[in-house]
Design goal:
The structure holds two protein chains of two kinds.
Chain A lengths: L1 H6 L4 H24 L1 H5 L5 H29 L2 H24 L12 H26 L1 H23 L1 H4 L19 E7 L3 H11 L7 E7 L5 H13 L7 E2 L9 H15 L5 E4 L10 H12 L3 E4 L1 E3 L17 H37 L9 E4 H11 L10 H12 L3 E4 L6 E3 L5 H21 L8 H33 L4 H32 L5 H9 L1 H21 L12 H5 L5 H9 L1
Parallel strand pairs in A: 1-2, 1-4, 2-3, 5-8, 6-9
Antiparallel strand pairs in A: 4-7, 5-7
Helix pairs in contact in A: 4-5, 5-6, 6-7, 7-17, 7-18, 9-10, 13-18, 13-19, 16-17, 16-20, 17-18, 17-20
Chain B lengths: L17 H35 L10 H16 L14 H13 L1 H4 L3 H26 L4 H13 L1 H8 L3 H16 L6 H17 L7 H10 L6 H25 L12 H11 L12 H12 L2 H13 L6 H16 L8 H19 L20 H34 L5 H12 L6 E3 L1 H9 L8 E2 H6 L1 H6 L5 E5 L1 H4 L1 H6 L1 H8 L1 E7 L6 E6 L7
Parallel strand pairs in B: 1-2, 1-3
Antiparallel strand pairs in B: 3-5, 4-5
Helix pairs in contact in B: 1-5, 1-6, 2-3, 2-19, 5-6, 5-8, 6-16, 7-16, 8-9, 9-11, 10-15, 14-15, 14-16, 15-16, 18-19
Classes of the chains: A alpha/beta, B mainly alpha.
Chain lengths: 602, 537
């Protein structure tokens, strides 16, 4: 259009103005007819008001950019300023379109939209924060690099400290540190929430019914109308093991289906039936407990006086070996499996090592400082603790929280109950990594969102000491810090080099990257130890996957963090469940290796 | 009857809060180390007093302390590693430490002279070294008396006293190196201790790169103290951290574009090549006509007992398993003298503390301190005959007493003049004269040790030129238009090396008259005023 106008002999200024106005109008029409079509259709805002808003917003963003350009250009190069402001302008325009010009809401909000208002308020704050941070980066690059580097060093150093706790001093890793369990004395109950678990239910219940403990019940929790297959298996096992297996029905009246509701219902049932118990354990449907596990838990309850005993859970299928995965049906099954094994090993190996580190080190240290998000299974609660929880909050597990296990851990700290963490290689509960990367991300999003939820519930504010509260913030926010650090470390260094920051600052920006390198090195060491401990062969390509996948893994975590934040901001709390494949069962031939390991150890 | 159920805690402390646990542990450690602390404090007072009394006047002012202090001053006030362009002659951590201490305590303003501030830093370094030597002795299972003995040998040796009063980088290396060994011998065997050892060693190496030669000994010491239960993690974390800290130096050069050799530009690798390969060798100690042999002769002239006793004690010290890495340090430091490369004349600073340690260690071994020889806790050995231990104890006691007697007899007369010197250093008097008589805009060529004072206290502007830079720094040559005063000790003109090394200075002196004179002989200072009509070529 511009060229056309000039070709027809129009003055450059006039041509520009005509072009700008035309573009703006086309933009408005396209926005209304295409991008925001649905909103406009049912909107209570008239066309002209929309038009007015649109133009005011565009003018404001233009003014903003024009005003900022000289400031930004003076501190950076002018082309950098131009492009970054263009991006900023684009973001501002989009937001103003979405939430104001085409928002579809009249100015006066009806009262029933209070929830939405809160959501949109959060969103606004988030966007404002991001935009301000963007300006800060452009305007004060050196200061930004400094702040980011220092905070990344802090996060990286504390992360390393946390994950090295088990090896910090030799006696932390003493094979006899948990003592020799004596004869068990406390009666207990194991709760097993199950839903559509026909593949693994029979095996799990069979194993759980035969643990080495004289006095305990296994209680599968099953939604009968919804899931007749699993129900049939469970009732079959109950007939096989009378006095040991007892089926608990999932409350029919519940609209949603989640784990805490089932667990709460089961504990209520125990009270109604007056079954004696001193502790309650939680197992997932695919968890094969080690036969000696209850003996140890019983012993730890009695010797440590702990309110909760958290035992180790370990993901197992790290390998790029295709044989560890099930053979997919259909054409080229083997080739697809080969590809899948190799293309997913990089994140699975890191995920496996995360568990290895969490349960051996992190949780230990967190238990020592008494701020403690728990794991979701192989965790055992004292009856006294559950009663105290019930007295205070009206129920046991929080039914609205995505990560009820995390929350219950924080509440334990608030109520002053001690958590004992036990990781004995032979006794860990073996699990599998999520089947696909998407599944892994969904799981991570759920956890992260749950952690944000717990954070905003502010129970942690009631922790007794300041250091605990500080640590709680750290622990709850940790996954976000970690993701940000992993992602930003190379960026900060690149920025420092590109921006020609002072040499000292560049050196400082190098340190977080180097610490990430140390973390990878430690992972390599740990993978070798993992292979030795569990008798798994670790191949060179697994190490390669670990090293090469380290950065992509951080990217994945960051994506999950962003997604979780977005979901929380938008107030979406629906459950994203991880599906179980039973990979860890196939390879170990229904746990036959676990007793073998135990024999070897004893 | 009601029974109260009490958890029988595996460790009763596990039930307490972290803060309480920390308080209990701290209390325990204070009680445990109270006797050592009392002994150590009295030792430090003694050694500190001997070091401090007379340190202003003795020994004479030499150039290196002035260089380092000018660089520390430059870091604090000019935010640069050197007032001239930094030539990577040494890693910079040494004067960064001096500078940090000055920033914290306003060091350059508290003293009349930068040399006074440097002396203060050296006193602190000496005290730190003494404390760490004591700790190292204890960690190597010396008796308390033995550890105290090694501190006295180190702290009162006249040779050490002379060299440790000079502001040399090696005197800052000593505490870092000792700290590295103390942490390497930590009984807790934690990742933190090993990492601390690696980081301390890295600091030593960044303070003066020559510390790198004892790396094998440190690795040995750390390897001895590894525990199977956390070995891989300790090795990975400690090794990586130490390396990371050391790599900061080449990275600094890299980011400045000064790592690799390029024509017309300072570079780290270029300087390193010169230091290691091209610098004039001072010959091997075994060649009796070499400069090294001459230098060692000078050391032995001041005190021969400790160095030679250390040499003699090495074979005995190697008998104690725990003690071998420390003995290896001493062996390596002697090997440096034998190797035949360039040896700086303050190399003795690296010999003395380890000699003190090794001598005492040998005496302890002779006396039957079996804990030096093993890593296992000792079973009590009652009833296995008391004769042999007694004979050994008596022998060792006699040896120790003889040694002490010889040292008292030999050291007292040597120490006396070092403590009683009260004469003002000629360079200091010259500074005062310059401050009183010379306009501030004159161009001065000065000795390193007075440069900082002239700039900082007396405000000479343009800044005086350090004599060494006159012929070596292209930037100085480029801007040089005239010279007005020459202020260096007499030996710069008197010795053939001086004349050969400083051609511009020698030429200027030929066109100059003496306007003031302080002291006499080679160390005396004559102030020359250069003719107005002479121009540097």
């Amino acid at each position: 259009l511009l060229k056309l106008l000039i070709a027809f002999g129009c003055a450059a200024g006039v041509a520009n103005a005509v072009q700008a106005v035309t573009t703006l109008q086309l933009n408005f029409v396209a926005n209304g007819r295409l991008t925001w079509r649905r909103r406009v259709a049912g909107s209570g805002v008239g066309l002209w008001r929309r038009w007015g808003r649109f133009h005011v917003a565009r003018a404001a963003s233009l003014l903003l950019c024009v005003a900022l350009f000289p400031i930004v250009a003076s501190s950076t190069d002018s082309s950098v300023a131009y492009w970054s402001l263009l991006v900023v302008g684009g973001v501002v325009n989009f937001c103003s379109d979405k939430y104001w010009s085409f928002s579809g809401r009249p100015r006066r909000r009806p009262h029933h939209a209070a929830g939405r208002t809160e959501t949109s308020g959060r969103l606004w704050r988030l966007i404002l924060g991001v935009v301000l941070a963007g300006f800060a980066v452009v305007l004060f690059t050196d200061a930004f690099i400094l702040v980011v580097s220092v905070s990344m060093i802090l996060v990286a150093a504390t992360t390393l400290t946390f994950q090295l706790y088990k090896w910090w001093r030799p006696e932390h890793n003493d094979p006899h540190r948990y003592g020799e369990p004596d004869a068990p004395r406390l009666p207990g109950v194991i709760l097993v929430p199950m839903r559509h678990e026909e593949a693994v239910a029979g095996q799990t219940l069979e194993r759980l019914a035969q643990l080495d403990h004289p006095d305990y019940w296994v209680v599968p929790i099953i939604d009968h109308p919804d899931d007749p297959g699993t129900a049939a298996i469970a009732h079959g096992k109950a007939r096989e093991h009378p006095g040991r297996v007892l089926v608990c029905p999932y409350p029919e009246e519940a609209e949603v289906h989640n784990k805490p509701i089932g667990l709460n219902a089961a504990v209520e049932m125990l009270h109604e039936l007056q079954i004696p118990f001193a502790w309650v354990g939680v197992a997932d449907a695919e968890d094969l407990f080690h036969p000696d596990l209850l003996k140890l838990v019983d012993y730890r309850f009695r010797t440590t006086g702990a309110g909760i005993v958290q035992c180790g859970v370990q993901l197992m299928n790290f390998a790029s070996d295709p044989h560890t995965l099930p053979l997919p049906v259909g054409r080229l099954g083997r080739a697809r499996r080969w590809w899948k094994a190799h293309a997913s090993a990089w994140w699975r190996v890191t995920n496996v090592l995360e568990y290895f580190k969490w349960f051996q080190s992190r949780l230990k240290l967190q238990a020592a400082v008494r701020v403690m998000p728990l794991g979701g299974n192989t965790v055992f609660f004292r009856r006294e603790f559950l009663e105290a929880l019930h007295q205070r909050h009206g129920n046991y597990w929080d039914e609205d929280c995505l990560t009820e296990d995390c929350k219950i851990g924080i509440l334990a700290s608030v109520l002053g109950f001690k958590v004992d963490v036990v990781y004995i290689e032979e006794l860990v509960t073996r699990e599998e990594t999520p089947a696909t990367l998407a599944g892994f991300i969904r799981q991570r999003v759920r956890w992260m969102q749950g952690f944000i939820h717990v954070f905003f519930e502010r129970d942690w504010l009631r922790l007794p000491t300041l250091s605990q509260r500080v640590l709680a913030v750290y622990v709850l926010g940790f996954q976000f810090f970690q993701a940000a650090t992993g992602l930003l470390a190379p960026v900060a260094l690149a920025l420092a080099l590109f921006h020609k920051a002072p040499v000292l600052l560049t050196l400082l920006a190098t340190v977080p990257l180097a610490l990430s390198g140390l973390a990878v090195l430690l992972d390599v060491v740990l993978l070798a130890q993992f292979g030795q401990t569990f008798g798994e062969r670790v191949r060179l390509r697994d190490y390669a996957g670990l090293v090469l996948g380290a950065y992509p893994f951080q990217v994945v975590l960051s994506v999950a963090a962003v997604w979780a934040t977005a979901r929380f901001t938008l107030g979406r709390n629906d459950w994203v469940k991880t599906r179980h494949q039973g990979v860890h069962l196939g390879a170990t031939a229904a746990g036959s290796r676990q007793p073998a390991l135990a024999e070897k150890a004893s | 009857m009601t029974s109260v159920e009490l958890p029988d805690l595996t460790d009763i402390r596990e039930g307490l809060s972290l803060r309480r646990q920390a308080r209990i542990v701290a209390g325990e450690r204070v009680r445990q180390h109270a006797a050592s602390a009392c002994l150590l404090i009295s030792l430090l007072v003694l050694v500190g007093a001997v070091h401090a009394v007379g340190m202003w006047s003795f020994p004479r002012w030499v150039d290196d302390p002035g260089t380092y202090l000018s660089q520390a001053w430059s870091l604090q006030y000019q935010h640069a590693l050197s007032p001239y362009s930094y030539i990577y002659d040494h890693a910079p951590a040494g004067w960064i430490q001096l500078s940090l201490w000055s920033m914290l305590t306003n060091g350059f303003n508290r003293h009349d002279s930068a040399i006074g501030f440097g002396n203060e830093c050296m006193l602190l370094a000496k005290l730190a070294s003494c404390a760490l030597l004591f700790a190292l002795g204890r960690r190597l299972q010396f008796s308390r008396v033995g550890a105290a003995g090694s501190v006295l040998l180190f702290g009162l040796c006249p040779l050490e006293l002379m060299y440790s009063r000079w502001t040399f980088l090696d005197n800052l290396v000593t505490p870092w190196l000792l700290l590295a060994f103390v942490l390497a011998a930590s009984p807790r065997r934690s990742i933190a201790a090993a990492t601390g050892a690696a980081l301390s060693f890295a600091m030593a190496a960044l303070t003066k790169e020559t510390a790198l030669v004892v790396l094998p000994a440190l690795i040995w010491a750390m390897a001895q103290n590894l525990d199977r239960r956390n070995r891989p993690q300790v090795v990975a974390v400690a090794g990586f951290s130490g390396l990371l800290l050391m790599v900061m130096y080449p990275l600094y050069a890299l980011y400045k574009g000064e790592l690799f050799e390029r024509a017309g530009q300072n570079s780290l690798l270029g300087t390193a090549k010169w230091q290691l390969l091209e610098r004039e060798s001072s010959g091997s100690l075994l060649d009796s006509s070499s400069p090294t042999a001459h230098m060692v002769g000078q050391w032995l002239g001041i005190d021969r007992w400790l160095l030679l006793a250390g040499l003699v004690a090495i074979p005995i010290a190697l008998l104690g398993r725990r003690f071998r890495p420390a003995a290896l340090v001493l062996v390596i430091q002697w090997m440096v003298l034998v190797r035949g490369g360039y040896v700086p004349f303050m190399q003795v600073v690296n010999l003395v503390p380890w000699s003190g340690l090794v001598v005492v260690g040998a005496v302890e071994i002779v006396a039957g301190n079996r804990r030096l020889a093993t890593f296992r806790p000792l079973a009590s050995r009652r009833g296995s005959g008391l004769l042999v231990p007694r004979v050994r104890a008596v022998t060792a006691g006699l040896a120790a007493i003889c040694l002490a007697a010889v040292l008292v007899g030999s050291w007292t007369p040597t120490l006396r003049p070092m403590l009683q010197a009260r004469q003002a250093p000629p360079l200091w008097s010259a500074t005062q004269w310059l401050a009183d008589n010379v306009p501030r805009d004159k161009v001065l060529v000065v000795h390193d040790s007075i440069w900082t004072d002239l700039v900082h206290h007396y405000g000479f502007d343009p800044q005086p030129i350090i004599v060494y830079k006159l012929d070596t720094d292209p930037a100085v040559r480029r801007t040089l238009r005239r010279l007005d005063y020459l202020v260096v000790p007499n030996w710069y003109y008197a010795t053939p090396t001086g004349v050969a090394k400083y051609p511009t200075l020698t030429e200027a002196q030929k066109h100059a008259v003496v306007v003031a004179q302080f002291g006499s002989g080679d160390d005396g200072v004559r102030i020359y005023r250069v003719s107005r009509y002479w121009r540097p070529g």
